[in-house]
Amino acid sequence: MKQFTRIEPTVVQEYGDKFKRVGVVKHFQSDDGLVHEFTTLGAEGQRSGGVIALTPDNKVVTSLQFRAGPERWLYELPAGGFNDGEDPQSAAMRELREETGYISDEVKFLGTSSRGGYNNETWYYYIARNCRLAESGRELDKEEADQGIEVRVISIDEFISHAKNDEMSDPHAVLMAYDLLKAIEAGAEHIDWPPHTDVAIEAA
């Protein structure tokens, strides 16, 4: 197995007009002396997160959004980018509340994902149970509202099916939670679930 050591230069490029995106060109030298160039997406150190949100009757709260890459509507986890210094769980739960209006104080950390071999962004995934609507409702930003993002509450079976059939953008999270979701769906008497979360999310 080759060993890769990062070397300079690093080239950071911004693209897009209204919504700036970042590309980072990285260089590595392998132990056979070859220099390799890779174009990666997203700013280094960028963090985002999403939540598999379950209602008291174990339905899944999803966002349905138009995505310009595949040019079609996709089911997604309520998710988004973190603010500087923001705690990952608090940030993910904030995104859940803003996009869907749902809140929860029963949250389990699932894991992290790069969502691809050329992405710099780290995604933090959570699963939340007994999600309920906050009094404040949704708090969409202007772009989300203009694009018509919709909230869809679906069964666990439908949720897994969308992940299997390229109808959603977060299959990594579904795989992380698969065993837990199937146990919940089957009505297991005992599920390894935390009694409370470290960060309580209260209704506004």
In short:
The chain has 204 residues and is α+β, with helices and mostly antiparallel strands.
What does this entry look like structurally?
- With 204 residues, this protein is α+β, with helices and mostly antiparallel strands.
- The protein folds into 2 domains: 4-41, no CATH class; 47-185, Nucleoside Triphosphate Pyrophosphohydrolase (Alpha-Beta Complex).
- It contains 4 helices and 12 strands; from the N terminus they run βββββββαββββαβαα.
- The protein has helices at residues 88-100, 142-147, 156-164, 171-185; strands spanning 4-15, 21-30, 35-41, 47-54, 60-67, 72-76, 79-81, 102-103, 106-113, 122-129, 132-133, 150-154.
- A hairpin with a 4-residue loop joins strand 5 and strand 6 (72-76).
- The longest helix is centred in the C-terminal third of the chain and has 15 residues, at 171-185.
